[in-house]
Each structure stands twice: as structure tokens, then as C-alpha cells.
Amino acid sequence: MAEAARARPKPTPETQHFWDGTKAGELRLQRCDECAKSYFPPRPFCPGCGSRKVSVFKASGKGKLYSYVIHHRPAPGFTPPYSIAVVELDEGPRMMSNIVDCPQTPDALELDMPLEIKFEKLDEQITLPLFRPAKG
Amino acid sequence: MRRNQVAIVGAAETTELGVIPNMSQIQLHADAALNAIKDAGLKLSDIDGFATAVETPQQICHYLGITPTWVDGTSVGGCSFMLHVRHAAAAIEAGLCKTVLITHAESGKSNIGRTPRMIGADSLNGQFELPYGVTTPASMFPIPVLRFMKTHGITHEQLAMVAVVQREWAGKNPRATMKEPITVADVLNSRMIAYPLRLFQCCLVTDGGGALILTSADRAKDFPQKPVYILGTGESVETPMVSQMETFNSSRAFKVAGPLAFREAGITHKDVDHLMIYDAFAHLPLYGLGDLGFMPYQETGKFIADGNTRPGGKLPLNTNGGGLSYMHSGMYGMYALQESVRQMRGIAPAQVPDAKISVCHGVGGMFAASGTIIFTNEKS
Fold this sequence. Notes:
The structure holds 2 protein chains of 2 kinds. Chain A is mostly beta strands. Chain A contains 1 helix and 8 strands. Chain A has a 5-stranded antiparallel β-sheet with strand order 6-5-4-7-8. A 3-stranded antiparallel β-sheet of chain A has the order 2-1-3. In chain A, strand 1 (28-32) and strand 2 (38-39) form a beta hairpin. Chain A starts with 15 loop residues before the first helix and ends with a strand. By secondary structure, chain B is of the alpha/beta class. Chain B has helices at residues 25-40, 57-64, 80-94, 124-128, 137-140, 145-152, 156-170, 184-189, 217-220, 252-265, 284-291, 297-305, 322-325, 333-345, and strands spanning 6-13, 49-52, 70-72, 99-107, 192-195, 197-198, 207-216, 228-237, 274-277, 357-364, 369-376. Chain B is globular and about 50 Å long. The A-B interface holds A 6-12, 15, 40-41, 66-73, 75, 77-78, 81-82, 84-86, 94-98, 106, 111, 122, 128 and B 120-122, 124, 126-136, 138-140, 142-147, 150, 191-197, 241-244, 248.
């Protein structure tokens, strides 16, 4: 089952900058120029105030573990058990990811533990943002 | 919406529940619909309003031979039928139709003639959730649980008690899929599905369906069944992406829909005799008790563990056994509504004595959507 590839995202015009960013080794978020809200997932307007004046910026790639499951069922591209996590980024927005480079156990995956981004290249087009325990 | 102006006058599930290998999904719709029509003492030609989810109204109307003047195809997951009840009540009050049929059916287990539900790779879910190995609801719906438990001090044993208590209710219900009593140890030793949730804390996968018939309260008194009035209603949606909920400590959709229904009904929590909270997974009753304002979140786990929701307890909850033990074809909201109607008619297998007000709270598409219907059997 691990031979089947994991689901591969297909960018849209509104999300292309995000996937261009991960390919270049950057986590790109957006911020509203009017109300200063940082947000995710990508869209060309602010979900807080509706303004179309928004900017893309490079995020720190740091965050903490907000919540997760350890999935024990088979999934294409994964060897169970594996974590499916939600990371709260230092800039505010949360995103789904996998926590890698650590045991996939409740003891190793402690809520609020600091995390840092690790880019996982799937192919020439797509690099996924994964997270690992922060060093130091 | 005005209170008690519309009533349920027909309610039925499919003839069989559980594993139904000899019926396609569309025929399960028809089976439930024909049972409800019979229950109401009507003919198909009496139906002039129709609502369903997943399938389109045109599919089911054509299959049944119905010519409606009002349709609703709201499809927001398992609570779609709560929203249909709310919309149908408004439509009847507005004079758009007189007699509404709402159907649900799913060949969830046998997978015969099932309408596929696909997530595109270029959707937001497809780009920002699917690549991380989410597959079934069991891989997504429990993602908020650990945060909820940490914030509110809920223990694994308390979460296990949700399944234990509901199995106790199921034991009183001949149509329940799982009836054998279980203990907290049984739950905590059952197979791990998605930590922190184990097999007995995840819903069943079954075949089945259900249908409801609504009409105005004025007409309802002439029907063969005891009318069940719609006292209050609420609905909302939040996000199709579980990762993007405002917080994991509560559900925004619950917190909008639930209190809206209570305000409309003009009741307080003390007035509630019977409660259904859609339990696709064991954590949902805890969210529901907190988000609907029954108690602080910190008390929800202890409230269930102390036996307050079990048979004979002060707040009977999920009295058919719930999605965990009764049945769960994929969109369980219809079965929660059916149990509320049975309780208000006084014919439930595990009947709550003298129950006059039933709150039925649904969730859909993980925490994407919510609908709340408050029923009463007394037209004030």
C-alpha cells in the first residue's frame, strides 16, 4: 500500500504563489494591508475584512503542535501509524501537516511542542511543507 | 420562525437496517419514503414539497413519481436533514407547499448504487489536507480531540464512557446493530483507529435510510399519528477543512445553531427532557453539551461518566444507541431525528417517561455544518 503515492495537490491561480514558495524553500503566507490579519489558506482577499489589498510574505516556518491524531489505518503513500497534525504557526494561521523525524507516539508528540518546517519534495512541481520537532 | 406552526406527521426508517445487500441506495430512499407515506396515511401524490441530500431532488422525485412545487437539495453532510426540516417548516409557513417529504438513504456498508463523493486535487481540501494522509472521516474528525481534552481536562476514561453509556441504550433497542454491554476497559482495549480514538469510539458503517413528512400544525391534527411540533430551529456552517476551524475547544457551527434553536423555542436547558447529539465519534456529545450551553465544557466528561445521560439519568442522551451502537450509514442526522420523533410520540424502544421536549442536534462534514431542531408533543 505504501507503493501508491500520497495525494498530490494541484495548484490554482490563487494558490500558485504558495506552491512556488515551498518549491523555493519558503513558507509563504498572506497578510491584509488594511487590517494586518495574517491568513491561510491562500486567497486574493482578506477573510477578516474583505479587503483585496493583501501581500504575500515569507513566514518563519516555526510553530507549535496544536492537535493531532495518530492514524492507524492504511492510506496511499503512508505506512501506519502516522501523525496527521495541525500546526499553529508563529504568525497565527494554522495548517494541516505531518510531524516527521520523531516517533509517531503520544509520548513523542506533545501538544504545544515547538516545531519547525521541513520541505518534502514530491516531484518537480510540488514540495510539501512538513514539520519536525524544533532543534534547540 | 414561529413556534409550533409545523409538525412531523410521518416518520419511518427503512424496513431493514444494518446490512441490506439486496437494495441500491436509491431504492433505500424509496423504501423509507413509502414507509413514511404509509405512516402518515398519505399517497405519494399528496407530496408537493421534497428535500434530500447527496442525491439530487430530481433523482429521488423522479424515482418516486413526485411532482413538487418546492425542493431543497441542501447537502452539508450528516446534519442536512436538520436543515431540511428547518427550511421545510419555513416553506410551509410561507405557503410554498403543504406537505413535505424529506428522505435520506445510504448504502454505506454494501456500497450499491452509491453516489460517489470526490474531493478534487485542486480544491482547498485537496491541496491543504488530503496530501497529509486524511482518508476517511475517522482520520479527520478526531483531529481536534486532543486539544479539546487538554483545554477542558477531559480524560480518556471519560471519553470511553460515551461509548459505554450509548451501548447501554442500544441494549434496549431491538433494531440496534450493537447490543452487547461494554466496559471502559473494553473501549480502551479495542483496536486503535486514530489516536486518541479506538474502534468502539467510532461510528458503525451500515446501510439504511429514513424519511420524514411535515405539514402545517392546523392540518396535522387530522393525521393518524400524534403530531410532533417544531418548536425551534437553528443552522450554521463553518469550514469544510477541519484544520481551519476557529478553535478546537468548541465548534462555531454548534455555537450558532444550538442557541438559535433554544432562543426560537423560548426554552431553557432545564426544559429539555430528551437530547440527541449526533455522535459520529465519541467526542461529539462532549462538544454538544458544551456548545449548546448545557454546562461548562470542563464538566461534560464527568457529567457523562457519572451516569447522567444513561437510562434513568437526568438528561437521557442518544437513546437509540447513537451512531456508535445503533446505526450509521454515513449521514446519521436522519436517524437522530427519527429517534426524537419516536420519543415525542411515546413509542421509542427505550422511551423516556413523559418526555415533552426533545432537542436534536446534528453535525455535518466533520465540523463543517450544524443543524438543531427542537421538538415538542404539546401545542401550546
